[in-house]
Amino acid sequence: MRIDLMTLSDELARLASLDDCVDYIQTMTDTLGFQTLIYDYVPVPLSHEGALINPSVFKARNVPSDMRAFWFERGYCQIDPVQQCAVRRTAPFAWSYRPNTCSVLHGCLGEPYKPVIDYILDNGLTTGLTVPLHLPGGAFATLTSIITTTERDAEQHAQTSLGDLMLLAHAFQTRASELLAPTECFCNHAHLTRRERECLQYSAEGLTAKGIAAALNRSQATVNLHLSSAIRKLGARNRVEAIVKGLHYRLLKF
């Protein structure tokens, strides 16, 4: 299939919701021989400690009905081999969980990943393509198409569609960025109240608790309480580490 970028962009621009765009891209990938489509977006992909953060947007077509529960509630997002590879790559890649293949996943198929591997194999989601999208400001997204077949040439078929999927992914993300809700563009890995963020922001700018209290017209004891709460919520050992983590999660302006 030959994809015309101008036509693709025009079609996506006519669609009013992210779900409509996902449906449209799914019809395009279906013509390429893929049955499953997954899109995810996260404002900050990794925690300060290097663990994958659950995406704030997760759109999937033709996946098992329990997949979201496993990935979000059982922690499969953090041990997903495809995402582990994607966040550290810039080029699109084909992958396979099938034995005796030259998959990029081979370094991520050990015991820690076994729950995800078993789920993938049990549901026949063994071969696919993923396009990593490293976005302005540090956000990250992936578009993944999966071939739900056991054919031996599935990985080779996926490889031949890399260019098409890359074009689809970038055109889709351009439109998706316009449709994302404001709440989806903020990292929810750590939840600070408005006042906690204000106090930490002032602290990052060099103000003491006394100076923050004067700026906010609050008591110094109240400011210290907010700062202590922010430190605890961020899993920091002190105020300096809380500022570093606050910057990492884009909770503070810099």
TrEMBL record:
Taxonomic placement: Bacteria, Pseudomonadati, Pseudomonadota, Gammaproteobacteria, Pseudomonadales
Domain HTH luxR-type: 185-250
Family annotation (PROSITE patterns): HTH_LUXR_1, HTH_LUXR_2
Natural source organism: Pseudomonas spelaei
Protein name: LuxR family transcriptional regulator
Membrane spanning stretches: none
Keyword field: DNA-binding, Transcription, Transcription regulation
GO MF, one example: DNA binding
InterPro entries on file: Sig_transdc_resp-reg_C-effctor, TF_LuxR_autoind-bd_dom, TF_LuxR_autoind-bd_dom_sf, Tscrpt_reg_LuxR_C, WH-like_DNA-bd_sf
Domain of life: Bacteria
One Gene Ontology biological process: regulation of DNA-templated transcription
Pfam families given in the database record: Autoind_bind, GerE
PANTHER family: DNA-BINDING TRANSCRIPTIONAL ACTIVATOR DEVR_DOSR (PTHR44688)
